[in-house]
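Troubleshooting: if your tokenizer reports a length mismatch, compare your output against this known-good record of 493 residues.
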Amino acid sequence: MKNDVKSKNSDSINKNIKKSLIWNSGTKFFIQFQSVFFSIVLARLLDPKDFGIFAIGLIIINYTNIATNFGFKSALVQKENVNAKLINSVFFVDFSVSVVFTIGILLLSNPIADLFNSPESAGVLKLLSVFFIITSFSGIMEVLLKREMAFKKLSGIHFIENLVGYSVAILLAIFGYGYWALVFSRLASKGLSLILLSFKTNWFPLIEYSHKEMKQIYGFGFWSFLRAQLVYINQYYLHFLTGLYMNQTVLGSFDKAFELSKKPMESFGKPINSVMFSTFSNLQKKQKQLNNWFINMVTIQTVFIVPFYIGLICTAPIFIPVLFGTNWNLAIVPLQLLCIGRILGVYNGGFASFNIGVGDYKNHTLSLFFVSFLFVITGTISVKMFGMVGLCLSFVFIAFIRTLLVFRLALQSITLKFHHILIRIFPYLLANSILFICVEIYLQSNSKIDLYTLINSILIGIFCYVIPVIISNFFLKKHWLFPLNQVLNKKNI
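Known-good structure output:
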């Protein structure tokens, strides 16, 4: 009887996880597809310099947004039981710090603009400082939906937010607002998101603070806060160096390459990792299910995310000039190098979700601290020696080191071995290799840079990837997957 109940509970958990993955990943894919389309339109309407000015504002705002998040929101997701007093206490701390940072940005906007030799960015910083207040409310609301695994609601909100934001940006860009089109669109989308979240959660904040309740998550919060600072360094330190040592046009081109390289990860990686974090948090004491979902996560990443990056690496020399225009050609090489680093980052993000979800946030943060320290050193040296290309190469190197460290840490919490995982994903790694070789052969034999060549290369890539995947699943299933299923079903796992 107990076994039947456990089996039903396990089936229910698995169905809920799969449903969340489908909704979160599916909607994110359409959001990112939408984003690529609209970003192409915006790139045709605005100059790289406009994106560079806006990027300076985001460098500062994104950091201070992280600095106001002391990891308590992640702790609320990870914690098994929470109450209203704890939620309100987290909001009180978050909101108080947000107000302080808003005032700080308003006072320091001009000196920051002078540092980057960009007087236009001072006004951008002042307006974007409103973000802190908005996120102190919306952050708690998103946590409440994530705890309920209500990713369908979250996905719908993010879809509408993205659509409205880009629509506002294009409309203002047409009327000649330049970089202000990007600023106002970001504020409009975040404001709308807050309104929609408030309707979906029915949560109303109360100003109260309980040290007794907060004491339970201060330990998690400290390490999560430190990890957030390190993640920011790994994501935006390159922007900082580019803005500091180069002009705004170069920064705009680099930012475009950086944002494009994030699209596959934003479409599939982050939604998958978000669901997986909640999943691993709920399955901390269920070793067999942890093993199963860990290997499922790695397989999903290999099948659905890696091929997009392979395609971007191959088609970047055509993709950029044909769709964005020749004035964006400076972004081609950075895009290719960043995509190589992102392939490694695909797995790194999943391993991070696992390590933090099972509660090993301290060791994970310490490993990230080492990598970030190394990143600052290599990035600073490379930008002075090799410019923007050197920065991208340092990004690839650090991505490799970081993935090795977090994977090694994850192996300590599961009973799988590396060869178990490799056996499972090998057919898909082979399919990705075939995709790369076939597209490269086609592009090398065709020197034309036009839309026809781009479409052909995409179709060839899809065909050369999908066919090997289908064949491997049909013919090699007994050889590659069945033995692993037997291993996973052993009692010692």
